[in-house]
Design brief:
Radius of gyration: 23 Å
Largest sheet: 6 strands, parallel
Shape: globular
Helix content: 25-40%
Mean pLDDT: 97
Distance between the termini: 54 Å
Order of helices and strands: EHEHHEEHEHEHEHEHHHHEHEHEEHEHE
Strand order of the largest sheet: 3-2-1-4-5-6
Bound molecules: uridine-5'-diphosphate-glucuronic acid
Amino acid sequence: MKIAVVGAGYVGLVQAVGLADVGYEVVCIDIDTERVNLLKGRRAPIYEPGLEELLERYTGKSLQFTDEYSDIADADVIFVCVQTPATEDGACDISVVERALRDVGVVVREDALVVVKSSTPPGTLVDFERALGRPDVRIAVNPEFLREGTSLKDFFQPDRTVVGVKTHRDELELRELYHFLKAPFLAMNIPSAQLVKYASNTMLALRLSYINEIANISAVTGAHIKDVEQAIGMDPRIGSAFLRSGAGFGGSCFPKDVLALQRAGEKAGYRARLISPIIDINVEQPLRFVGELEKVMRLEAGVRVAVWGLAFNKGTDDVRQSPAIRIVQELIKRGVYVMAHDPKAEVGARKELGDSGWSFVARKEDALEGAEALLVLTEWPEYIEADYGSMRDVLVRPIIGDGKHALNHWALRRQGFTVIGIGL
Ligand code: UGA
């Protein structure tokens, strides 16, 4: 079975190297020639643990990269993994998917199976069919549930595989393609599979905004959110996963998918009411974190603050919608000078933050020089496991802000630090 993957981004690259590792012949196409050349040289355009090793192993052998659609003409299955940005009003913009489908439609062989992996809302199948323009080619969807930072692990060990199909034959073909996965394989109609993706991300985002709401209530009532989280998470009906409060969630998916679900409902005639507060709470959360910091120190010109972590999550170089970036922007706005470190996100952070009001330091310890507080905003292991005791006298004042509520607050306080978070 010959496989093509359209789009060499986070999702497409993982799909391509993952399937090459299973033994398939894979061609990955991207219209960005620079990206393709980088990949042909076995270099990854993004950071994702394990990706470069697999590129090294398969590129030029069972895995080819190209910017020419004619190179995928003989593929049996074509996965479309291109970006779905948001339109101005927050709806899902499927124009890049449509463009990819149009290009695929020009070259693809009769009876091939085109599988849309990009996150797209229910109700878009007719648009896809129109764009593809090939009634002789089959179409299906297969949403991904990869988390940046653990994408390859998630590819090989998913919790479930979901496909949206029109016929039993398409289901069987995809079941066979994914024969190497142990997880339950769920086939359903196309709108259902599309909705699974949006509803899953929205549920996770809902939990996060919910626990952040409880943290905000803790902050004003004297409750300790970590005690509250632990106790409510022990109810097996609730569970403790994805129940860690903090300065808000980030990434390219949750904020976008949550709004897109709201808009998809509206477009089809239903106004959902539980969804928009998820975003409202999340937009405010980084500012609340800065507000907590302001209770213990002045945030004004002449003050220096150290920041560890700029990526939205550990294990990634991605800074899209990162609460850390929002916090640094807010500090710069108040005249505070920020010394920041991140093991992977320097390039993205420089793009987001410009070059005034802050500096990037290559060693995390160098951020502390002359700083009145240290803010830990991404839970990279090297930050969680750092020797904080030794920093107590390096910092001008022993203040530690924890934007992910992931540090050992009890131990820090015992070492004499003032620990800042929301409702900690
Ligand atoms: C998310 C979903 O988890 C994936 O299943 C989905 O495939 C992906 O979106 C997507 O739509 O493509 P991702 O955004 O990469 O994955 O990262 P997550 O691990 O979900 O983290 C999102 C944010 O929530 C991060 O900022 C993280 O720090 C935050 N978070 C997570 C918390 O604040 N508290 C928690 O308890 C867990």
